[in-house]
Write a structure and sequence with these properties.
It is built from 12 helices and 15 strands. It is of the alpha/beta class and 381 residues long.
Length: 381
């Protein structure tokens, strides 16, 4: 819980990045205060899709920041098509960019053309999603994805009072898309936190879905999560109480809450976890249909990526010392994320738990505001 408390204490600092209006991050000690002198350097940024506001915001923010300090930027979007993204990456390599920043459509597929980057000594930084099975990868910037699952597991543990309450409790897991490497960390973080209770029989998974492969939700889609949960309820919970569902993110949590409304006949409140802070899910938290969400300030992630990549472009070698000057709470990690070839130097931002009782923390980020009745949150942008 120390990480949660520390993250909550630092949210006002994280929110200042957004609320100041400019979106620019504090300068690092190694980065110059004025534009770099070498304006011939170019960064290639490969984003997954323009269909989600999140990736549009990330791409445009990063482009603006790099251009503001004198770098050229080539920004691509790949329509959530891994093959198209590989072609985009190949094109960026052929342009002899000085650095590649890649938010992979598929973490396994994105490695296919990166040998060309290694041959040209082009540093490769994975953004948000780890790129697997390549030794061309230099750095990884994301949230502490295992911590996301751990926070969800700890929430269930505390709210069911597993160390003291008598009897057993029934729990189910709903994972993310199998092509997103982060989803496996979300699941393992939650499952490992509760593993001892599952082994002892204090927690029971009646469906037997006890591995990521068994609980993965295609495309993270709410409809798919709803269908899967409806099937689970029909098969195992017509006469049994369901106590908790650990959902990897808010889109899957939305599908699960819909399934419970239509199929679950139990009289108890079911604990439902989530992740992201989607507006509809925040409404569900207020209305008691979802218990919590794990929030990740995506503006902070983009700001950290800018600082790490900027130091590389300026000829520096980012390491643990950079953490102190980054605009968010970040851990420098060299031993947790192995992409199948090597452990990747990682900058991991800290997520935190949001419940009905601390929604004001989201308002403090500057990304949300209260509606006119001060009951629900809405977008401030």
């Amino acid at each position: 819980m120390k990480k949660v408390i520390a993250a909550l204490a630092s949210i006002a600092m994280a929110g200042s990045l957004v609320s100041c209006g400019s979106g620019s991050a504090p300068e690092t000690e190694s980065a110059p205060e004025t534009k770099v002198s070498d304006t011939n350097k170019t960064i290639g940024i490969a984003m997954p899709t323009q269909d989600l506001v999140r990736w549009n915001n990330d791409g445009e923010y990063l482009k603006k920041q790099f251009e503001s300090v004198g770098y050229n930027v080539i920004l691509t979007y790949s329509d959530n098509d891994a093959a198209k993204q590989n072609n985009d990456i190949l094109s960026l390599i052929s342009e002899d960019v000085d650095l590649l920043l890649i938010a992979a459509v598929d973490g396994n597929e994105a490695a296919k053309n990166l040998d060309g980057a290694k041959e040209k000594d082009i540093p490769v930084v994975a953004y948000d999603r780890l790129i697997m099975n390549t030794d061309a990868l230099t750095y990884y910037i994301s949230f502490d994805n295992s911590a996301v699952g751990k926070l969800q597991g700890e929430f269930v543990k505390e709210n069911l009072d597993l160390d003291n309450a008598p009897g057993h409790f029934n729990i189910e897991f709903v994972g993310g898309d199998s092509g997103d490497n982060n989803a496996k960390y979300f699941f393992s973080g939650a499952y490992d936190t509760l593993a001892d209770y599952i082994k002892s029989g204090k927690l029971v998974i009646k469906s037997g879905k006890d591995s990521f492969e068994k609980v993965a939700t295609k495309d993270w889609a709410s409809d798919n999560a709803k269908k899967n949960m409806e099937s689970t309820l029909d098969a195992y919970y017509t006469d049994e109480q369901l106590d908790a569902v650990i959902c990897a993110n808010d889109s899957t949590a939305l599908g699960v809450s819909q399934a419970l409304e239509s199929k679950y006949s139990g009289s108890n409140d079911v604990i439902i976890t989530g992740q992201d802070g989607d507006l509809e899910n925040l409404r569900n938290i207020v209305d008691g249909k979802q218990s919590m969400t794990v929030y990740k300030n995506l503006d902070d992630e983009a700001a950290v990526a800018f600082e790490v990549c900027r130091q590389i472009l300026d000829g520096g070698v980012p390491a643990a010392s950079l953490v102190d000057s980054l605009p968010a709470e970040v851990t420098y990690d060299t031993g947790s994320y192995n992409n199948g070839k090597k452990y990747i130097q990682s900058y991991l931002l800290t997520p935190y738990v949001v419940t009905k009782d601390n929604l004001q923390l989201l308002v403090q980020t500057g990304l949300y505001k209260w509606d006119s009745d001060k009951k629900y949150l809405e977008s401030a942008t």
